[in-house]
Amino acid sequence: MVLSLLLSIFIHDLAQAVVGSICGIEISALIILPIGGLPSLANKPKKKFYEILMLAAGPAVNLGVAVFLLSYLHPYQAYWNEPENIGVAYPGNFIFQLQFINLSLGLLNLLPVFPMDGGRALDTLLEKKYSTLRAKIIVRVISLLIAFGFILTGIIYMKYTVVMIGLFILCTVRMGKYYHPLNNTPTRTH
């Protein structure tokens, strides 16, 4: 299962690298996180659309794999009805676990929070209207609100996986500064 998770993360990042390369986006570094990589862009893309296309490629591939694997799971509802299928791998549910991993990676990366792809896409869209610094602040506030929402919901419903997602977002929200370094941050004068 660990290899399946790593393979799913790899195809996610590979899809983004390929689309980024096609769109002329240069990536200077890749920071590896448990749910994927965070590319540090060496140059600003010529068009914001190219950046959003690159960011969408990763979740699209994961969701595509999840949909493809759906055809191999019969009856599908039976896998969800057995609690031992979620998070526990054995030969009889390997395809379900692989599908669940890709579905989770795809959906989590669509969240509008840093460091997920959805948060980086939101940052890119906000930069069209606001300064880079203000866009980052807005996405950071949204990220913190969603993180606390996950934590609170997980505690109320005693779903510790949801709490862990919230804690992950809370701990990694600062990673957004590595995505677009704030080289043009205005300095305050007194």
Strand and helix layout:
Blueprint: H1 2-22, E1 27-33, E2 36-41, H2 48-70, H3 76-81, H4 94-108, H5 117-126, H6 132-156, H7 160-172, H8 176-179
Antiparallel strand pairs: 1-2
Helicity, as a percent range: 55-70%
What is the N-to-C order of secondary-structure elements (H for helix, E for strand)?
HEEHHHHHHH
Gyration radius (Cα, Å) is 18 Å
Output mean pLDDT.
83
Number of domains: 2
In terms of per-residue confidence, which ranges show pLDDT below 50 for 5 or more consecutive residues?
181-190
How many E-type strands? 2
Q: Kindly, what is the distance between the CA atoms of the first and last residues, rounded to a whole number of angstroms?
A: 56 Å
Structural class: mainly alpha
The major β-sheet equals: 2 strands, antiparallel
Strand order of the largest sheet: 1-2
Residue share in β-strands: 5-15%
Q: How many DSSP H or I helices?
A: 8
The best one-word shape is: globular
Tell me about this structure.
- This protein has 2 domains: 1-110; 112-190.
- 62% of the residues lie in helices and 7% in strands.
- The chain has helices at 2-22, 48-70, 76-81, 94-108, 117-126, 132-156, 160-172, 176-179, and strands spanning 27-33, 36-41.
- A two-stranded antiparallel sheet has the order 1-2.
- α2 packs antiparallel against α5.
